[in-house]
Amino acid sequence: MSRKRVLPLAALLLCVPALTGTVPASAAALPGPVGRSGPLRILLTNDDGYDAPGIRMLFDRLTAAGHEVTIVAPLTNQSGAGTKLMSGAAVRVEHPEPRVWAVDGTPGDAVSFGLAAVFRDRAPDLVVSGTNFGPNVAALATHSGTVGGAVAALERGVPALAVSTGELAVPVPQQILNAMRPTGDFAVKLIDRLRDRARGGRLLPEHVGLNVNHPVVGADGTGTARGVSVTTQDPQLGLGARYTDSGDGTWKVDVALVPAPAGRGGDVEAVGADRVSVTPITPDWSGGTADRAAAAALLKGLRP
Predict the structure, then answer these.
(1) pLDDT, tens digit, for every residue of 94-133?
(2) Mean of the per-residue pLDDT values of the chain
């Protein structure tokens, strides 16, 4: 995802009405008009699995807010799957309860199946991926299945949010589980804001999504965030792996946090300051104007 074409969130939300009607008329299974105050049709996915605490909490919270929510998520934990799509000739899908579909594949597979089969007549108004157990900031976002699920929706022209709970620190499970509740509260408020600003049009500009990271605030994780920051994706690694030869053809892998200063205006800085980080994302890997100019200068005169 490009880190150069980041829109200020206020400008992004204000420009939504101007983009209404830019979707080609020939496109199939795209979202219909959004009511200014009515419920939204939401496809809810994740990478922790269809029965994980985070997705169930968000299902309950969004349903209580009046939205029509359907879970279409991986059958098993797919953390770190990124944007991977399976290439098999068949996929196993379970339907364990009403409004819940479990796809034996990646988050991208789940979203692909959901849009093509569960929502085949009309795409949802919004795809929400999460809330994830742990953060998806810095390089973690690049390889995140949570973000990958949102990207799969954006590629198909459906507005999407990736939602995560946590920060770059050794996780304390109960703190993160507790922090999922204020994460859910914020997600509902954010979706209400998008719907109100859409004025009956698209919730977000076409092919632009939001990667939302909610901090763990307070000793027990139940505290309220100090505010909201529109951020870029911090370029730091976040986690690093160390490999030790076992001498039998296998290597032991130890993964640990890699300490690094937080970049100014980045997602790591915001979450570390107990603020919600909201990073606009796109489903392509294109560099910005400056990147293309630098590449052109580098390659000037080069011939096959």
Answers:
(1) 999 999 999 999 999 999 999 999 999 999 999 999 999 9
(2) 89
User: Please, are residues 206 and 255 in contact by the beta-carbon 8 Å criterion?
Assistant: no
- Sign (positive or negative) of CA dihedral 133, 176, 228, 201: positive
- Whether 245 is covered by a domain: the verdict is no
pTM (2 d.p.): 0.88
Residue 110: partners with Cβ closer than 8 Å, 6 or more residues away: 45, 72, 73, 74, 101, 103, 149
User: Can you tell me the distance from the alpha carbon of 165 to that of 284, in angstroms, rounded to the nearest whole number?
Assistant: 25
Is residue 90 a part of any domain in this protein? Answer: yes
> What CATH code is carried by the domain that includes residue 132?
3.40.1210.10
Average pLDDT over every residue of 39-46:
97
Residue numbers of the domain that contains 226: 9-19+32-235+261-299
Q: Which two tokens stand for residue 4?
A: 């150069």
Asked if residue 214 is part of any domain, the answer here is yes
Give a yes or no: residue 222 inside a domain. Answer: yes
Tokens standing for residue 269: 């800085």
* Closest C-alpha to 106, from 71, 156, 146: 146
Beta bridge partners of 129: 45, 162
What total number of domains does the chain contain? 1
Could you tell me the end-to-end alpha-carbon distance of the chain, in angstroms, rounded to an integer? Answer: 29
Find out whether 47 and 77 touch, Cβ atoms under 8 Å: yes
